[in-house]
Write a structure and sequence with these properties.
AMP binds at residues 412-416, 441. InterPro entries: Carbohydrate_kinase_pred_CS, CARKD, Nnr, Ribokinase-like, YjeF_N_dom, YjeF_N_dom_sf. Residues 223-496 form the YjeF C-terminal domain. Residues 15-213 form the YjeF N-terminal domain. In the C-terminal section; belongs to the NnrD/CARKD family. This protein folds into two domains: 4-217, YjeF N-terminal domain (Rossmann fold); 224-495, Ribokinase (UDP-N-acetylmuramoyl-L-alanine:D-glutamate ligase, 3-Layer(aba) Sandwich). With 496 residues, it is an alpha/beta fold. The protein has helices at residues 12-24, 29-47, 62-76, 94-103, 136-148, 186-189, 193-197, 209-215, 257-268, 283-287, 301-307, 325-336, 347-350, 356-362, 376-382, 384-388, 394-405, 440-453, 458-476, 482-488; strands at 53-58, 81-85, 108-109, 119-124, 152-155, 177-181, 199-203, 219-221, 245-249, 273-278, 294-297, 313-318, 341-344, 370-372, 408-411, 417-419, 425-427. The chain contains 20 helices and 17 strands. It has a ten-stranded mixed beta sheet with strand order 8-17-16-15-14-13-12-9-10-11, with helices on both faces. Strands 3-2-1-4-5-6-7 form a seven-stranded parallel beta sheet, with helices on one face.
């Protein structure tokens, strides 16, 4: 059984609350620091058996305290060590002061360290709690170490990475590996922090899971544990209408491919029926490429209104290759009536750039029925103020956008965030870099539509689609195309 700690994300603020709650429960806070430092020392010895010297860089807070425990443990193991401190160690307080007192070795200033061949640096300067820009002298040290290619083992998070946002605060270590404690923090998953963390190890230092869960729950790592409980149950009594009917709008005759990719992905992802809604001028182009996907003429509002009389048709994908902004707005208005669900992607998002509130008003009432799938540029068209606010993490941008739109927001990228209006958010980590290819987003839109058509709630439909999209990308392998990505979707069904 997978532990909640594997998918839990805690901000530095939340982790501080966990530490205080653990101490209040009777756990020794210094005992936790001791276990953390010993774990880092064990990792250092295991990962770098050929090190000629371990250089421990200790900061002015509890991360530095961890570093002094590491130094003591490595010295006891018989390795050569050197300790360099930022600030005056005598000024340490609390558990960090205790750790320094237990070390008893010599400590040199941080500025005195000059990398040499055979060194391994243990970075215990700041950890995940950093929320300010680094001083120039610290930046100089970090840059010198990065340029030297001396391997770095980071304690909690590479120093210079903001644990809440993943942003670089002036400079940051490029770690070969990082040891963190109990669970991951947003900075481990959000870019560029993810790229600086290296191999990540999560070590349980003994805080009860109930204390972690009491401070978490709203944000996490996207994994089947978050949505498996609402996956459609497949039985022998099922038929195509039970599995839902998905409709995807085609673009004009010169841009039909994107809509077809979404439609084919929706069918492959389990929708019982999929219909491509095509203007007359694009019928021949679409008909030449479709078999199992049905084709229906929709030339304007009248055709769509007639189609909407079929109460079984409740889920739509609008935007891939669509092109016509004015028509997209009218279609969204028609779809919004009733209990219909809409995946708005690409050109569908751009259609509302001049009046985003018009879109939000259409879906303002009730449970979320709108799923938005923007990349950063499209996000800025609907939420310019959030996009420009550098104080927000990607998670926070997604949460605020979801609350404003009463929709589920899939803020795409290598660190895709899925956010719901109620504040829930998941960060995806399984997508390979080769998913960044033409048509990949169209496939994702169709996936989301298929999951909605099968009756999944909007947040879980979006999150499961993003995860399935990433797993299919891994299965298809480097060099995939949108077509081979669709073919790979079935290969991941058994692990959902």
């Amino acid at each position: 059984m997978q532990s909640h700690k594997e998918t839990l994300l805690l901000t530095p603020e939340n982790m501080g609350q966990v530490d205080r709650a653990a101490a209040a429960s009777g756990l020794s806070s210094y005992g936790l620091m001791e276990r953390a430092g010993q774990a880092v020392a064990a990792c250092a010895l295991r990962r770098f058996p050929g090190a000629l010297r371990f250089v421990i860089l200790c900061g002015p807070g509890n991360n530095g305290g961890d570093g002094y425990v590491v130094a003591r443990a490595l010295r006891a193991a018989g390795t050569e060590i050197a300790v360099h401190a930022l600030g005056e160690p005598a000024a340490l307080r609390g558990d960090a002061a205790t750790a320094f007192a237990q070390f008893t070795g010599s400590v040199a200033p941080l500025a005195d360290y000059h990398p040499r061949s055979g060194d391994v640096v243990v970075d215990a300067l700041f950890g995940a709690g950093l929320g300010r820009n680094l001083a120039a002298d610290v930046i100089a040290t970090i840059e010198a170490i990065n340029e030297s290619a001396v391997p770095v083992l980071a304690v909690d998070l590479p120093s210079g990475i903001d644990g809440r946002t993943g942003a670089v605060r002036g400079a940051a270590f490029q770690a070969a590996a990082t040891v963190t404690f109990m669970c991951r923090k947003p900075g481990h998953l959000l870019l560029p922090g993810r790229m600086m963390t290296g191999d990540l190890e999560i070590f349980d230092i003994g805080i009860p899971e109930r204390i972690l869960l009491a401070q978490g729950g709203k944000i996490g790592v996207n994994a089947p544990a978050a949505w498996r409980h609402v996956l459609p149950v497949k039985t022998g009594a099922g038929h195509k209408y039970v599995r839902g009917h998905l409709a995807v709008f085609s673009g004009p005759a010169t841009a039909t491919g994107a809509g077809r990719l979404s439609a084919m992905a929706g069918l492959r992802a389990g929708a019982g029926l999929v219909t491509l809604l095509s203007p007359t001028a694009a019928l021949s182009a679409n008909a030449a490429h479709l078999t199992a996907v049905m084709l229906k003429v929709v030339n304007g509002d009248g055709d769509l209104s007639a189609l909407l009389e079929d109460v079984r048709l409740k889920t739509f994908v609008l935007g891939p290759g669509f092109g016509d902004g004015e028509r997209a707005r009218r279609y969204a208005d028609l779809i919004a009536s009733g209990e219909r669900r809409l995946v708005l992607d690409a050109d569908g998002i751009t259609a509302f750039r001049d009046d985003p509130q018009m879109l939000f008003d259409l879906f303002a009432e009730g449970e979320p029925r709108l799923v938005l799938t923007p990349h950063d540029g499209e996000f800025a068209r609907l939420f310019p103020d959030l996009a420009e606010d550098s104080t927000l993490s990607k998670i926070e941008r997604g949460q605020k956008a979801a609350a404003r739109s009463n929709g589920v927001v899939i803020l795409k990228g290598a660190d895709t965030v899925i956010a719901a209006p109620d504040g829930r958010a998941l960060v995806n980590e399984n997508a390979p870099p080769w998913l960044a290819t033409a048509g990949s987003g169209d496939v994702l839109a169709g996936l989301v539509g298929a999951h909605l058509a099968q009756g999944m709630p909007a947040f879980e439909a979006a999150a499961s689609a993003v995860w399935r999209h990433g797993e299919a990308g891994r299965t298809a392998g480097e060099g995939l195309t949108a077509e081979t990505l669709i073919d790979a979707l079935g290969g991941v069904d058994h692990i959902m």
